[in-house]
Amino acid sequence: MIRELVRYGGPAAKVRALYGKCLTAEDFSALSAMKSVPDVTAYLMSHPGWRDSLTGLDPQEIHRNQLEDALRREMLSEHFRIYNYMSSSGAEIYLQPVWRAEQDEILSCYSYISTGRPGEYTPGLPPDFRKYSKIDFSALSGCMDWGSLLSSVSKTEFYPMLNSLKLPETGLPDVASVEWVMQTYFFSRLYSVATRRADRKTRKTLESLAGGQADLINISRIMRIKNFFPEAWQDYANLLLPFSGQVSPAFLRDLYAAPDEDGAFQMLLQTPYKKLFSRMKFRYIEEYYYDFLYEFSRRMLRAPVPSAFTVIAYLCLKEIEVQNIIKTTECVRYGKTPGSAGVFLVGVSSAV
333 and 346: one domain? Predict the structure, then answer.
């Protein structure tokens, strides 16, 4: 305990103070009542959690995409500030945002190629942050087909998996397979870093988080398959992540075999995730995943003994906050509130 306090006490105090500046349910209620994107921007610029990072924006001239870009840019900046601050043997753990950003860029580029719009992709990752990535962004920007995309990521660690995908006659793998590769790589690397670099306590926490995320992603996919592709189980079973936390592959097969959605949900109430699934009935199955991530991170951030995961928990919560702001801004843009639009704000009262 003394060692953890000495090593992580300072960073833990720092991120807990930062979390104290995050938006509250009352803030999101106020944002939801706004009439325009400029109103949302002005509110954020007056808030202590976002005031400094949005300096220089003109709230009267800003568009939704510009605000979203500024929010994501600040989120990445904060990630890298913390990464540089935590320059220790376990610092690789804090590069998770880079891994996810790389996945987002590749998937974004491929979506243009697969929908017949090659050449329209432009990198969303700001130039200052591309130095942390092995992607050739200049080449990625000019990708016109699958082969040129592979060439642009040939120096990355996930290239071998992408290169091994079997191509149909069209010469393009389906988007779901590409996404599966990205997610499999992310979890493989997370487990690898936890094993090689993290102390025992942090390793167990990371494995618990990664296992929970993998379980809920697989559960969400099975429920989607049951609802939309009930006759195509063999086609989609290979797209389940090859990782598990507290539910076994056998349970996932039984879940798919449940007679209907209600029967499957009753099975979920018998798992170690019973508390999560019984807390409320979400509109979309994927919302349980984000609710799990939020609750897990809040619990870790508040743990009495700090660890490397105290910082990781804050970073997860910050990303969730940015997602909530973006969802709220989109609702405001169309004259809706999150409640009236059926939009779920993670960790925020359903009354918003």
Answer: yes
